[in-house]
């Protein structure tokens, strides 16, 4: 079909849509009211019961992990954040989940199964790089790989949101080994349903 034919069909369709307004003597119908669409993953202040539910789920997971000095965690305004270094979960510079990472995701899946009122966002970060696009793709793949492990352990995929942020939000500046290790991280944000 030629470009001119497509344009004629489109113009005819638009004329058909305008016909009801012309039949009413040129009056137009009132526009439908737009309702605000609320993103269920958007941050918001938690109610006390939601806060308790989120903290209980996080405590279940942290209890399963056991005492350690490499997990950073805490309650934020609208979620509970558990931060882990990526080198414990992934093979270096890849999205291949290490056996230790699979074990951690198994513990997380068990904690999610016991806490039906929560969902989790997996946010991956990496060190500051020259190739920002490559960093973004790597972190997207890492989050998706962790989500796949959780789903293989019985977690509903609708309760898990994978997010990769590349090198956009470093927590340590510089290119030394300490900064690289701090910036290569995965954050698990536990939120109410």
What's the structural blueprint in terms of helices and strands?
Elements: H1 3-23, H2 48-65, E1 72-75, E2 80-85, H3 86-89, H4 99-114, E3 118-125, H5 132-152, E4 160-164, H6 177-183, E5 185-192
Parallel strand pairs: 3-4
Antiparallel strand pairs: 1-2, 2-5, 3-5
Helix pairs in contact: 2-4, 4-5
Mind explaining what this structure looks like?
The chain is α+β, with helices and mostly antiparallel strands and 193 residues long. The chain has a single domain (48-192), classed as OmpA-like domain (60s Ribosomal Protein L30, Chain: A, 2-Layer Sandwich), CATH 3.30.1330.60. The chain is built from 6 helices and 5 strands; from the N terminus they run ααββααβαβαβ. It has helices at residues 3-23, 48-65, 86-89, 99-114, 132-152, 177-183, and strands at 72-75, 80-85, 118-125, 160-164, 185-192. The longest helix has 21 residues, at 3-23.
Descriptive keywords:
45% helix; 193 residues; globular; 16% strand; 60s Ribosomal Protein L30, Chain: A; disordered N terminus; five-stranded mixed sheet; alpha+beta
Taken from the alpha-carbon principal axes, the silhouette is globular
- The number of domains is 1
User: What is the CATH superfamily classification?
Assistant: OmpA-like domain
User: What proportion of the residues is helical, as a percent range?
Assistant: 40-55%
The ordered H/E elements are HHEEHHEHEHE
The chain-level mean pLDDT equals 82
CATH class: Alpha Beta
CATH architecture: 2-Layer Sandwich
Q: Estimate what percentage of residues fall within beta strands.
A: 15-25%
Adjacency order of strands in the biggest sheet: 1-2-5-3-4
């Amino acid at each position: 079909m030629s470009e001119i034919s497509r344009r004629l069909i489109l113009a005819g369709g638009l004329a058909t849509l305008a016909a009801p307004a012309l039949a009413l003597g040129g009056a137009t119908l009132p526009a439908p009211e737009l309702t605000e669409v609320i993103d269920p993953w958007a941050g918001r202040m938690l109610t006390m019961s939601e806060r308790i539910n989120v903290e209980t789920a996080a405590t279940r997971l942290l209890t399963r992990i056991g005492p350690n000095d490499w997990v950073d965690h805490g309650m934020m305004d609208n979620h509970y954040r558990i931060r882990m270094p990526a080198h414990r979960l992934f093979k270096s510079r890849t999205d291949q989940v290490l056996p230790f990472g699979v074990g951690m995701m198994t513990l997380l899946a068990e904690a999610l199964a016991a806490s039906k009122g929560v969902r989790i966002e997996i946010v991956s970060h990496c060190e500051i790089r020259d190739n920002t696009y490559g960093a973004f793709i790597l972190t997207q793949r890492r989050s998706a790989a962790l989500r796949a492990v959780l789903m293989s352990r019985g977690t509903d995929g609708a309760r898990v949101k994978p997010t990769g942020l590349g090198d956009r939000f470093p927590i340590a500046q510089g290119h030394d080994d300490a900064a690289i290790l701090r910036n290569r991280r995965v954050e698990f944000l536990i939120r109410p349903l």
